[in-house]
Design a protein that fits this description.
By secondary structure, the protein is α+β, with helices and mostly antiparallel strands. It is built from 20 helices and 23 strands. The longest helix has 26 residues.
Length: about 550
């Protein structure tokens, strides 16, 4: 965006400019100001302002102590001793107390109203000497030339234009991704696309006893819920699912959230007397990351760099960790840019390692095998305690002490293979047969066609040879028409689609093949004139048999 030349001449020089006054920006500003650095913090809104992400982790406690805000955070929050996972499929719940974490330093965390929490951090930055401007939005940035200053333009709530010339810029703009969006660095998470809808309620059922104050993660059929207890009897309730589930809704977001709550037995039981006390908020394009989080004279921290699915409450911790690292890089840049570049590379590696450790779990959270493992909570080889350490925010354990993590991943792969053979891990820790292996393959083929994936005969043969491929059939898929009709199956290709209807050929269907090739794409039940099974109905595939040559 072009600006008048006089604005560049009158740009106010600052050492470090921070864009965004959330946890990442406020943490960096507090640390830099405490060390005597001239820092300016811009916030587009005025605190307190609404934000989701109320659940913190034990690793945050040490950061609060370094910032001097632990007592203030404790005064506004609810003590969080553990994380609870509840499964609708298993009809069971399991808690992971933070006191069981390996080498646990802090055995608790807090659930906090984010508006009040962010205000505490912002006020602390001001008290420690940072200059803060609220309702001042950054609108453009010209990167700094080597050895020079950047140029940042901002607009206040009164439409006043301001210009600043910082030596270093920390982008803590959150999901606005001020720099990543303008530099074309933002990339969506290809393996975990999701969206969320949430609202605060009063009158929901709170946990008591040993699980009082726990965050509850309810694993539902089409996604998962969070239920976070807050002060004054308020419960934050949110649902996270695949974007296609949101796009296919035929009602408002409030009605959609109510329908999802009603569809989950465990959530519905706790929400019988609950009343929504505020508007419903929705967020799409949930997970993303920038290709790199730093460059000449700038660094992206917090959600401005990357955002993960919040199922493990890692958002505030990653933001504050990145704020602390960003403050160190900014301070080093003012003294020696060459040393600061090396420090920025190490900081990015640390952040990516932590995100990768949690990302491995997040991308598999809808996998039945991983859900089975969570509900069984087996501590063989220290797997449960190692998992709790990860859930507590201990992302940077030395390689030599990560044995439980490697054991957990090895057990997951072994159980995945057994799952294909029809064996599942139950909450009591025993392996039991769930269904025969061949019907599982037939059901997977059914799920493939319903997901609008081309099920050409070569793909089916490839599917049958891949022991690691699984398909999760959602309730939305179960409501679709049958997988194929006899007439369509004999023509080759799958025709199941709510848009085209059974019996019609999809526009993206594969070309017709020879009779011998089409045998692979034709259900034996269809050839015998029997109605095909509905998607999601495992019993309909139980009589599948390969055709004799």
């Amino acid at each position: 965006m072009d600006r008048p030349a006089h604005m560049e001449d009158s740009a106010e020089p600052v050492d470090v400019l921070i864009i965004g006054g959330g946890p990442a920006g406020a943490t960096a500003a507090s640390l830099l100001a405490g060390r005597g650095t001239q820092v300016l913090l811009l916030e587009k809104d005025r605190h307190p302002r609404f934000h989701i992400g109320e659940s913190l982790l034990p690793r945050n406690i040490a950061l609060f102590e370094r910032l001097g805000v632990l007592e203030q955070v404790a005064a506004i929050g609810v003590l969080k001793p553990a994380a609870e996972f509840v499964s609708d499929e298993h009809g069971a719940a399991v808690a992971f107390p933070f006191s069981l974490a390996r080498d646990a330093r802090d055995r608790f965390a807090f659930q906090v109203p984010r508006a009040a929490f962010d205000q505490v951090l912002f006020a602390n930055a001001t008290a420690r000497g940072a200059r803060t401007l609220q309702q001042c939005r950054a609108v453009s940035l010209r990167p700094a030339p080597p050895g020079g200053r950047a140029l940042v333009h901002a607009v206040t709530a009164g439409a006043e234009r301001r210009a600043f010339a910082p030596r270093f810029v920390l982008d803590a703009s959150g999901r606005d991704t001020f720099l990543a969006g303008r530099l074309g660095l933002r990339e969506p998470a290809a393996r975990h696309a999701c969206a969320a809808v949430s609202a605060p309620y009063r009158g929901a059922e709170f946990r008591t006893g040993e699980r009082e104050g726990c965050i509850s993660i309810h694993l539902a059929r089409d996604g998962w819920f969070w239920m976070i207890p807050l002060p004054d009897g308020v419960m934050s309730v949110g649902f996270v699912g695949h974007p296609t589930l949101f796009k296919g809704r035929e009602s408002s977001m409030a009605a959609f959230l109510a329908a999802q709550i009603e569809a989950s037995p465990s959530v519905r039981a706790r929400m019988r007397t609950a009343e929504r006390i505020s508007a419903v908020t929705a967020t799409g394009n949930y997970s993303y990351a920038a290709r790199t989080n730093w460059g000449e004279g700038y660094m992206m921290i917090g959600d401005a760099f990357a955002f993960l699915d919040p199922i493990f409450s890692s958002g505030v911790l990653f933001a504050m960790m990145a704020g602390e690292m960003g403050a160190a890089v900014a301070e080093a840049w003012l003294a020696d840019p060459r040393a600061a570049r090396a420090l920025a590379r190490r900081a990015e590696r640390r952040l990516r390692r932590g995100m990768s450790a949690l990302g491995w779990l997040i991308t598999r959270i809808n996998d039945p095998v991983l859900r089975d493992m969570f509900l069984s909570a087996n501590n063989r080889f220290g797997m449960r305690d190692g998992l709790i350490s990860l859930l507590a925010g201990d992302f940077e354990r030395p390689l030599a002490t990560r044995g439980p993590e490697f054991a957990f991943k090895a057990a997951y792969r072994m159980l995945s293979a057994l799952h294909w053979l029809g064996l599942r891990l139950h909450p009591d820790g025993q392996l039991r047969r769930a269904m025969p292996a061949r019907p599982r393959l037939r059901a997977a083929m059914c799920a493939t066609s319903c997901a609008s994936i081309r099920c050409t005969p070569p793909y089916w043969r490839w599917l049958g040879s891949r022991a690691s491929v699984r398909f999760w059939i959602s309730a939305a898929d179960a409501a679709k028409p049958p997988c194929c009709s006899c007439s369509a199956a004999r023509r080759g290709g799958c025709t199941a689609s709510s848009a085209t209807g059974p019996g019609s050929r999809r526009r993206d269907a594969p070309p017709r093949r020879s009779a011998s090739s089409r045998r692979w794409a034709t259900s034996p039940r269809c050839r015998r004139g029997r109605p095909p099974p509905r998607c999601g109905c495992w019993t309909g595939a139980a009589r599948w048999r390969p055709r004799r040559r």
